[in-house]
Amino acid sequence: MRRLFGTNGIRGVVNKTLTPQFALKIAEAIGTFFNGKEILLGYDGRTSSPALAFAVASGLASTGCTVYLAGMAPTPTIQYAVKKHGFDGGVIITASHNPPEYNGIKVLGNDGVEISRRQEIEIEEIFFEEKQKRAEWNKIGEIRRLLGIIEEYIEAIKTHVNVEEIKKRSFRVVVDPGNGVGALAAPQLLRELGCKVFTINANIDGTFPSRPSEPKPENLSDLAAVVKAVNADFGVAYDGDADRAIFVDENGTIHWGDRTFALIEKEFLKQNPRETIVTPVSSSSLVKDIAEAYNGEVVWTKVGSVDVSHKMKEINAKLGGEENGGVFYGPHQPVRDGA
To answer: Do 247 and 288 share a domain, yes or no?
Structure first.
């Protein structure tokens, strides 16, 4: 069977494999799948994202869906807003860490989690079999705006941490959003937690002029240097849509995601013994070693954040993680969240 969805949504090169015409047509299929419900739509900072978002909004509205435009925001912010505001689903225009010529389309369920593989196939069948259901002229959906989702998201995160204890530490933190939408949330969150925040590459620019959007160690030498130069406690780098984070310690050493997740896992299991940790088979054995040492259990999934999220939902797990810097905290939302 022909497929459109990959590991994390639909992705392609803009105006080649991912055109506004395609975005309109797949949005009609998505709208048909949701059957005229209320959908939240947001996008990342890529140069093509606003144009593709408006094409998607038109396609959704043509099927009778009411579309709420959230504007530019981190992916996990949009996911949280879907759940908080009770939307029936969501669509995000983003290609995450891919080069600037790429973009993509993610589809969310009513809990903010990306839809299941089975539901992806349903949308693909509507698309390929031309089963889109367009509304009558007088039943085309409205396009409205939703404001304030970043502030709501920041407040939600703060409910899961000890704000006063963090403020006492007066951490010095360097944030590198990589010219992506992480600049819209992470610096503000850290400042509200009493941190002294330094930023680099924090101007949103969809051409990613400062470094590649993928926060690999070889791309983070500037961050490591600034951490040492300003005597920071740590640095954090984000991918393009801010659902993954890579950390640099006070010595300027860059740590890949499995090491930082192991620290999170250790602290989590010390406070929540015998809990289950969900991680893909691509993760290192360090995750298993920590679980065994601190009375936890590991459940392995296929590679892909969608698979981790849905397994967490299935077994009601509170923590998941990937080696690429993705951390899933169920009490907040069972999705990758760089903040």
So the answer is: no
